[in-house]
User: Which sequence fits this backbone?
């Protein structure tokens, strides 16, 4: 039997749990703080594979094995690896308080509606995008993906970072900083977890299901759901297929280029993605912000003309291009070079299709498209209806083959 004990952020370790152990495995600080029996072998966790081999040898001799871990070892912890190798039936898990629970407790904030994402040993881009999209996020940090890196990526946003270090020890600290302040500091190796918070939305309705809110009940919303100018908005039929090809989800970053009303960006944000809307007109930027606020989502609106306005943006997972005029081929080319997964282009002018398609294929995308022309029911006098045709739109999409490893938090 392997006894897995969570320590460090809750009650002190019960010395009795180590009695009779022939092997004790853990991080150096856990082993140094624990009353390890004198006759027990000690293994300091570094690379997991050698430690697992030592555990297996002791189990073959029916020895008692104890593994010490931080907080709740079943929450982004070693329980997964042990269960995969030895089976869940071989484990006696005794969880402590997780660093996430402890950090939210120190902040006095409920966390049943929080999103938890690990950046430990992972590309931090997923954690950054979740922080951009959700108002209450806990990030488990690691080398190269700590408060400084998160702060640098979130600089200028309306988020606050609570950096919890050395939780459960005499050196415990919980510091409230802006992203810019976090970016300008060396935080060392004691950081336990970072909370990224939109303080205006910390409290909400009583929840039934924990975690991020469920996806929207519907998408491809009617044009009337958005403020727009002179019907300059992606029609819901086109938006429906565009969303299907973009595949926005939690952890993704999506650009909406030539955003107009920002309807595509808002819908992507409603589906969980971090969304950036690029619009060249000042009044358009204000409409985008108003539409995002009306739907309760975060959309970063950028005032500027593509492709120049794209230079300082982080690389996206997917891009929707809904405007561009004569610059369209160049815009599509720039977007295609930087998109990790796919690009969708909507065009009213058929003669722009070949150049947009060439831009996608030259960037290594598999390309396909369709002409969308719908007719909507419209009332006539006498309680009858007619079909009113909408303007045809050519929708072109490119999918990168093979796709970049997406690293979405699971």
Assistant:
């Amino acid at each position: 039997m392997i006894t897995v004990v969570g320590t460090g952020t809750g009650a002190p370790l019960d010395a009795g749990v180590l009695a009779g152990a022939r092997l004790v495995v853990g991080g150096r600080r856990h082993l140094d703080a624990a009353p390890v029996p004198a006759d027990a072998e000690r293994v300091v966790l570094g690379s997991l594979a050698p430690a697992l081999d030592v555990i297996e040898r002791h189990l073959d001799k029916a020895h008692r094995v104890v593994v010490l871990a931080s907080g709740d070892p079943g929450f982004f912890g070693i329980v997964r690896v042990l269960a995969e190798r030895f089976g869940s039936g071989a484990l006696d898990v005794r969880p402590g308080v997780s660093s996430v629970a402890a950090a939210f407790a120190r902040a006095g904030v409920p966390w049943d509606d929080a999103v938890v994402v690990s950046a430990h040993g992972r590309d931090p881009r997923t954690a950054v995008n979740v922080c951009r999209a959700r108002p209450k996020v806990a990030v488990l940090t690691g080398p190269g993906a700590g408060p400084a890196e998160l702060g640098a990526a979130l600089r200028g946003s309306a988020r606050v970072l609570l950096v919890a270090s050395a939780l459960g020890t005499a050196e415990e600290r919980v510091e409230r900083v802006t992203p810019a302040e976090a970016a300008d500091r060396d935080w060392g190796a004691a950081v336990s977890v970072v909370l990224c918070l939109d303080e205006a939305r910390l409290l909400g309705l009583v929840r039934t299901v924990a975690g991020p809110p469920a996806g929207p009940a519907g998408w491809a919303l009617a044009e009337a759901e958005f403020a727009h100018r002179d019907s300059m908005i992606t029609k819901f039929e086109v938006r429906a297929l565009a969303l299907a090809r973009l595949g926005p989800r939690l952890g993704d970053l999506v650009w909406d280029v030539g955003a107009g009303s920002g309807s595509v960006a808002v819908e992507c944000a409603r589906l969980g993605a971090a969304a950036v809307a690029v619009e060249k007109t000042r009044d358009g930027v204000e409409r985008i912000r108003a539409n995002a606020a009306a739907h309760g989502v975060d959309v970063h609106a950028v005032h500027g003309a593509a492709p120049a306005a794209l230079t300082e943006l982080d690389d996206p997972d997917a891009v929707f291009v809904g405007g561009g005029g004569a610059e369209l081929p160049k815009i599509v080319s720039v977007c295609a070079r930087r998109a990790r997964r796919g690009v969708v282009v909507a065009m009213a002018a058929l003669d722009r299709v070949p150049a947009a398609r060439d831009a996608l294929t030259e960037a290594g995308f598999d390309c396909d498209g369709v002409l969308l022309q719908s007719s909507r029911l419209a009332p006539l006098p006498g309680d009858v209806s007619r079909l009113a045709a909408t303007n045809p739109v050519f929708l072109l999409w490119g999918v990168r083959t093979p796709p970049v490893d997406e690293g979405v938090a699971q």
The CA atoms of residues 280 and 304 lie 4 Å apart. The chain has three domains: 2-97, 100-201, 223-400. The first strand starts at residue 2 and ends at 7.
